[in-house]
Amino acid sequence: MKTKIKKLIGVLIRKPRQLLTILLPLALFGAGWWFGLPAEKKDQHDHAATESNEVWTCSMHPQIRQPNFGLCPICEMDLIPLQDSGGGGIREISVSPEAAALLDLQVSPVVRSIAEADISLFGKISYDERSISSITSRIGGRVDRLFVDFTGALVRKGDHLAEIYSPEIYVAQREVIEATKAIRNQQSGASKPARQTRLRLLNAAREKLRLLQLSEAQIDDIADQSEPSDRITINSPQDGVVVSKSVDLGKYVKTGDSLFKVADLSKLWFVMEAYESDLPWLRYAQDVAFTVEALPGQVFHGRVAFIDPDINPVTRIAKVRVNVLNPKQLLKPGMFARAEVKSKMTGSGEVLDPELAGKWISPMHPEIMKDAPGQCDICGMDLVPAGELGFIAESADSKTLPLLVPVSAVLQTGKRAVVYVRIPEKLDPTFEGREIVVGPKVGDQFIVESGLSEGELVVTQGAFKLDSELQIKAKPSMMNPNAGLVEVPANQAPEDLAGQWQPVIRSLARLQKAAQEDDASAAEEALTGMMRAINSVDQSTFQPDTLKLWGEFSNRLMNSLTIAKRKLPTHTKQAARITTRATEEAGRYLGLSSQTEAPQTVDPAIAKSLKQLIKFYLPLAKALADDKPKEAMSTAKILSGHARMLPLPEESESLFQDSMKLSQTVEIEAQRAIFQQISNRLISLVRAYGLDRVGSAYVVHCPMAFDNNGGDWISNVPEILNPYFGDAMLNCGSVTATLSLGDSPPKKPMKDMEHHNHGK
Fold first, then answer.
1. How far apart, in Å, do the first and last CA atoms of the chain sit?
2. Fewer CB atoms inside 10 Å of the end CB: C or N, the chain?
3. Is 211 helix (H, G, I), strand (E, B) or coil?
4. For residue 613, what pLDDT is reported?
C-alpha cells in the first residue's frame, strides 16, 4: 500500500497538469462546503481560529470551562458557548444608559459600620416605689395628736408623726415595767430557774413593744418609768416627704390601718414611653440623658433599670424605667422630661459603650457600678460584668459590625423587603432584584440581617420603577415573587445540585425533631447547620438556568433561616414551620425533594473510626487518579491497618481483606476493581453510621466506569478526580450525594474558577 502511494506521488510531481486537475476540484469542493455550512458552524470555526473572550463548555460535562472552541476532553463532544449568566438572577433587568439617565437611577454601596441611633423619648418623673414607706398602725386606738397634719411635709428619720391613745399599749407597757422591777428587786439568793423565768417574761414583754414598732430607746424609757402610759408615738422610718395622710385627729384606727406614706426624693424614677421601633436600641444599665422644662440648660442622667416586657395593645408603647439620683432634690415627681438616648450597636446586637470597659454592674440597681467584682450596696446581689449585659468597650473585629443600607433602597410589602442590586459585570446598566431581611431602622438606614454583602451597589432612587418593569414583563417582583416560574417535579433537579441537597434536608429533619421536643439549643444548632449546608453548595458546574434559580431560592432560604433564628429560644415550633415552608418552596421550583426522615442516631465511636478510615482512604483514591499503582499499593497497606480498628467486626474484616488484596495487586486496572468494592462498602457504612459526622465526604459517580456500569468513590471536596480512569478521563463524573460537610474549605465563586481541563 505504501509503495502504491509513493508511485502516485511521483507521477503527480512529474506531471503538474494532472496535479492541477486533481487539486482544483478539491479546492472548489472545499469552498462549496465552507459556504454551505450553517452560520453556527462557521462561527464555531471562526472562534477556533482566533482567540475569543467567550467561554466554552460541554453540554454533558458542565464543569469543563475552556477559552476556545474544541472537543470535550472527557466525552469528545463539540463544546458549546457558555450562556452568559452575567451574575444576575431570575429578577435581572437591563436598561440602556439613556434609559437609566431618564429613570434617574442612583446607586449607593452597602457599608459595614457601627449602627448609631439617636432616639428621642418623652416621659415623666415619678416617685421611686422602693423608697416609699407606708406607715401603719400596729395597735388599735384613737389618734390624740398629729405632729404632721398636712401632705407634703418634710420629715427626717425618727421625727414624730402622730400619737395614738390605746388601752392595749397601757397593758404592754405595764408588763415591761413590772417585769423590769421583778428582775431588779429579786434577791441575790434566788434560784437559777426563777431568775431565768423572770428574764424570759421581760424579753417577751419587750418583744411585744418591738412589734409595735417602738425603738430600743423608747422601750428602755418605758422600762425606767414608774407608771405606764396609755399613748404610743408613731415615728418616721426615713427621711422624705409625706406624700399621703390617711388619718385625722380624733379618728379611731384599727391594727393595720394606713396612717402616712413617706417618700425619699433623693432617688426618683424617670418613666419613658418607647415605641416598638425604639426598643432594639435600649438595654438594661444604658445611660440616658434627659432635660426638664423647669430647669433649662441642665442635663440629668440615669440608667435604664427596667424595660416593660409587654406592649400596650392600643398605644403600641412600652414603659422604660430609668433610675435617677436626685441628691439636691431639683427634680420633682410629675415633671415632664425629654430624653435623648445615643446608642451604638454592633451586628451581633451588643451596645458599644467605652465608659463601661471593665465595669461590674448590679443586676437589680444599675446605678451601682464598680471597677471590680463585689456585691450591690443596696440589695447585696453579686455584681455582673458589663459584657454579660450586652455591652462592649470597643468593636475589635470589623466583621461584627452590621451591614447598613439606605432606607430609600428598600421596597417593603408585607413580610418581604426587596432591593435592586447593580450587576458590575455588565456593560449596560443591569440590576437584579433581591429579597433581604432588614433589622432595626437607624436614622435613614436599615440594618441588613441577610441578603446583601458589603460593597454591593443598591439602587437608592428609581427602584420602584425597575420593579414595575419586572411586573410588566411577568417576572418575579416585589408584589409577586413567583411570577413566571414553573414548578418542577420532585427529584428532577440536575445531578450537580441534587447531590449537594441532602445535608439541607438532614438539618431540616433535626430542626423538626428539636421543635417537637422544644429544644431551643438543638434547634439553633440545626439552623446553623442548614445555613452552612446552603453556603457549602458548589455552584461552579451549574448550568445558567440552574444557577439563577439556585441564586434566588438559596437566598430566600437563608432569609427564612435568619427569621427563624429570631424566634429562638421561645418559639421553636414557629421557627421549624418557617424553615419547612421555605424549603418546600425551594424544592418545588428546583425539582428537589423536601421529604425528611427521622434523624440518624450516631455512635460516636463508629463515627470517629469512619472518619479515620476516610482520612487514609483519600490518598488511595488520589494515587489511582494519578495513575500510580505502586503508591496505591502502599496507601492500601496503611488503610488496611486502620480498617482493623472499626468497631464493627464483620465490616472491619471485609475492609481489611480488600485493602490487603489491593496492597498486593500490581496491575492498576485490577486495583481499581478492588477499590470500587472498598468505596461501596465505605459509602454504605457512612450512610448507616456516620452521616454528617465524618468530616468532608462527597459521593462522586462516574457513569462510564467498568464498561458503562458506573462506579462511585468518596471525595473530600466536590471536585472530580476520577480514580477509575486516571489521566485518560480525569474529570469524568459528577457529585451525586453529600454524606458530610465536615470542614471543607469555602467554594470559589464561578467567576473566579480557573479555566482548567483543556488539553486533557
1. 34
2. N
3. helix
4. 94
Rg (CA), the chain: 42
Q: Cell 436614622: give the residue.
A: 443
| Residue 296 φ then ψ, to 5° | -65, 140
Q: In the chain, what are the domains?
A: 1-34 (no CATH), 37-82 (no CATH), 104-113+402-472 (2.40.420.20), 119-128+264-398 (2.40.30.170), 134-166+230-262 (2.40.50.100), 167-229 (no CATH), 495-590 (1.20.120), 604-745 (no CATH)
* CA-angle at 751, arms to 112 and 79, nearest 5°: 165
Q: What is the DSSP string of 36-72?
A: TS-HHHHHHHHHHHS--S--EE-SS-TT--BSS--B-
The amino acid occupying position 262 is V
Q: What is the mean pLDDT of each run of 10 residues along the chain (760 residues)?
A: 41 42 43 42 41 66 74 79 63 86 89 88 93 87 90 90 86 83 77 81 84 79 81 87 90 89 93 90 90 93 92 92 93 94 79 80 88 88 86 69 92 90 86 92 89 93 90 89 92 90 94 95 94 91 90 95 94 95 95 88 89 95 95 95 92 94 95 96 93 91 92 92 92 90 51 32
**pLDDT at residue 199, rounded to an integer:** 83
Q: 87 and 425 in contact (C-beta within 8 Å)?
A: yes
Q: Report the b/e string of 687-696 with b at 16+ CB within 10 A.
A: eebbbbbbbb
CA distances from 99 to 303, 315, 418, 430, 466 (A): 54, 46, 22, 11, 11
Write out the DSSP string of 534-586. HHT---TT--HHHHHHHHHHHHHHHHHHHHHHHHTTT-HHHHHHHHHHHHHHH
Cell numbers standing for residue 357: 470597659
Residues found in the chain: 760
- Give the pairing type, strands 252-253 and 141-146: antiparallel
Q: Is the dihedral of CA 288, 289, 295, 296 positive or negative?
A: negative
Closest residue by Cα to residue 725 from 737, 717, 733:
733
Angle at 676 between CA 672 and CA 678, to 5 degrees: 115
| Per-residue H/E/C for 666-728 | CCHHHHHHHHHHHHHHHHHHHHHHCCCCCCCEEEEEECCHHHHCCEEEEECCCCCCCCCCHHH
How far is it, in rounded angstroms, from Cα 391 to Cα 280? 14
Name the amino acid, one letter, at 418: V
Cβ neighbourhood burial of 424 (10 Å; 0-12, 13-18, 19+): exposed
CA distances from 250 to 164, 171, 193, 253, 630 (A): 9, 21, 46, 9, 114
Structural contact between residues 245 and 151, judged by C-beta atoms closer than 8 angstroms? yes
Q: Identify the residue whose cell numbers are 496507601.
A: 635
Beta pairing, strands 160-165 & 141-146 = antiparallel
Q: Which residues contact 424 (CB under 8 A, 6 or more apart)?
A: 87, 457
The residue ranges of DSSP E strands in 380-494, in sequence order, are: 384-385, 391-392, 403-406, 411-413, 416-422, 430-442, 445-450, 457-461
Note the pLDDT of residue 167. 82
Cell triple for 64: 469543563
Helix, strand, coil share of the chain (percent; to 5): 40, 25, 40
Is the Cβ–Cβ distance between 507 and 529 less than 8 Å?
A: yes
